[in-house]
Amino acid sequence: MVSSALRGGNAVELEVYTFAPDWGLPTTGPFAVKLLAWLNLNGIAYRQVIENRPSKGPRGKSPWVALDGRLIGDTDVIIATLAERLGLPREDPAATPRAAAAHAFQTACEERLHQVLEWELFVHPAGFAWVEGAVRAELPRPLAALVARAMRRHFARQLRARGLARHDPETIAALGRRELAALARYLEAEGWLGGAAPGEADCAAFGQVAPLVSWPMDTPVAAHARADPVLADWVARMRSACGL
Asked: Is pLDDT above 90 for 8?
């Protein structure tokens, strides 16, 4: 991507820092997928910078951006900042029942479904095997094993504190399938979360669902996502609309 955009006479210099690509996606980070989708959907040019150490970002999370040299973290803050800077409209979640529903689905995907995604990636044996392999590709073997186990403990503790990991694996899988089923039924009826065309809520939900549909690991909620034709079709349509 080029590193400048022009809207309404205002040029911006934008660098987007994300985890490395994999699974056929431009990055493995769900929130980075969301941000790249939103930028592409709105025709905002940027330069993607691969950075696998989120501690380097302003909030210790991936992604973050450098906007005209200023570091900004959190995708909601980034999107709000760019929308205001470039004069892009954003729908009030309370404006219409459709907008409220889209906001509710975005929250469900970025809270509950994201926790399930993290559990399947970092705690489920099949997901963790991929994590171990990814860490080994970056670090010497003895250190890689220590780092991978530390990552697993970190996410297991976080997910237990938030409540999800207090359930057994079968319950966690059922919770994830329930979120996906609700999303699929709504998309089947309406086509998009955002209305007649994909919007910010679609980008947010896509950020969580696209990795599940795309990764090769045999985890139960990801398998359910891949098997649902409505979700598979929506992910394909989002990738086409956003150029991802």
From this structure: no
